[in-house]
């Protein structure tokens, strides 16, 4: 997600499609085909992420294979946007990998359309999970995804950069105006080399948090938009004075730096995003230490924050190896040693067994402590959003970028997004 | 182009009057089709079949997972109200209009240089052809992205001359020149065809022209251009059709998103995004068919206008 590795895309297409072909067909028994130590079955597993996650995942797979001699796991990965295009292609051909890392944004698209295995029909232990979190993997009473971990929104900052600019570290209680002036100060002192941050209004989830701070639900229960065009205009106008100034890094730079983020590239001093990006940011930027504080809010008692499953584990509805898939998922979400491997890079482990079995030190501890510190502000985890939400999320980002390029003004941007959103909701109704 | 008239002439003169030869011809045809069979099967199963189903899908609402639902011409109508679709048409047309002529000009210029007698021409021909062998590959798109990125060689080179454009990749007004350069650089395939065409031009024509005192410019416009016109026409047609289909490099350089600010949202890229990111395969199919129709019309126009400027040898015109 942070590190888009597009050059791996093509390599992965080949392997993924070959693997997918091999995974075609449906199981004859409820457990599916099973293997033995002499003749193991091979399941395919795919995830998105950067090199760091790939390395950790390979370790976890090796550990799983060691403990389960009758199962081999064939893994491969891509970056986040390419990930969904490939899954769509595979799903259309009936060849999704057996087990997949999944995102809340796409759970309805596939779950509601019978592409994912109902995990209630297989044996996965969810006793150690917080009961308020599990519904975010469920649609209409069926469990399609098990959360591996949770993440929450936060403002990252680099204390070393702030010190070098002679700016005091934030204490984490700020209004939008205060955060904006902070960005402006960093930008003006940064002298063209360090910018305040990226345009935080371009991130859908931050908008969602702002809506919650104003007691507005993003989507109504019948799958329509719960906010108005004026709400969106107001949101995008929050930083209208900052666009084009050093408070916000230019969209040109953001595009140039991709697949790395500006924050990971040491171009900005702050970033508003999910707290589990810590490991990736540290690896990308080489910074000794990065810190987390809560997002701005104009209502100090309502930060609009929530714990979201940072990712879920799902299985293909057509897997031949239901039993092996279930055991792998159970292992990935519950095993304490897996927690030790991933630390907080997937988010804070959702299963208490895994969380308690993991030692969090240094920056990992910061992430865990951050989620503890905001506990009193947390609200219910969001349900899986509407069908097609992934597309809406992507177009939110794209139209925000157009805004920063000066291709549209806020009114035009809001019109464009609403047109796409209404069209999509009508399409999927 | 030159073979088909000869074939039909032979068949019309020999077939009707002599039944023995006709039987022979029937056997020949059977053998011919038998040898063609593997290719024909592949063509029907992998090209014609999918094309017919995509034609059907273009009249439906199809999300890849559920059964398609017939909606008539809705997709085609919605297309023209879709701003991103219109943007993708604009991007693609400007790429075709700028990229193709420049590429052909480069190919012809290099072919003419390589046509002269000089030591080591074999080496130069391979060297100039190499970019088009690797140019369409994924790795080159990645290299291109690095070359034109922030602090990449192009940025540094231009800065040396006091031109500070920054990286081209993130600048919406510089991405099109970057793609045009990428395609111009892959001039190898039309160049080889031009070179073959140049070799066919009889040397005595140039000798005669020299005797009459014609300079190189005059020779080019009065000998090379008309003699080469069938080859130019062929290359123009193929490269135009090819340019409409640009996908891989755009996908890689823009991270599959068509950015920055939609400036690399090529037609096929938008088609792909509609189909595989937004799950609107019916809509994407409609786009695909519209492209087939438009390219077909353009080809037709090319053939119609070619009569006035393409000269085939033995032609009385």
Describe it for me?
The complex is a heterodimer of chains A (429) and B (317). Chain A is of the alpha+beta class and 429 residues long. Chain A has two domains: 7-149 and 310-360, D-Maltodextrin-Binding Protein, domain 2 (3-Layer(aba) Sandwich); 153-306 and 384-428, D-Maltodextrin-Binding Protein, domain 2 (3-Layer(aba) Sandwich). Chain A contains 16 helices and eleven strands. Chain A has helices spanning 7-22, 51-67, 80-92, 107-111, 159-165, 176-189, 204-213, 229-237, 251-257, 278-285, 322-334, 336-342, 352-356, 362-373, 389-404, 410-428, and strands spanning 41-48, 71-78, 99-102, 138-139, 142-143, 146-151, 153-157, 270-274, 291-293, 308-315, 348-349. In chain A, strands 2-1-3-10-6-11 form a six-stranded mixed sheet, sandwiched between helices. In chain A, β4 and β5 (142-143) form a beta hairpin. Chain B is mostly helical. Chain B has two domains: 3-57, no CATH class; 78-306, MetI-like (MetI-like fold). Chain B has 14 helices and two strands; from the N terminus they run ααββαααααααααααα. In chain B, a hairpin with a 7-residue loop joins β1 (60-61) and β2 (69-70). In chain B, α4 packs across α13 and α11 (216-244) packs antiparallel against α14 (281-306). Mean pLDDT of chain B is 86; it is low at 1-16. Classes of the chains: A alpha+beta (429), B mainly alpha (317). At the A-B interface, α1, α3, α9, α15 and α16 of A face α6 and α13 of B.
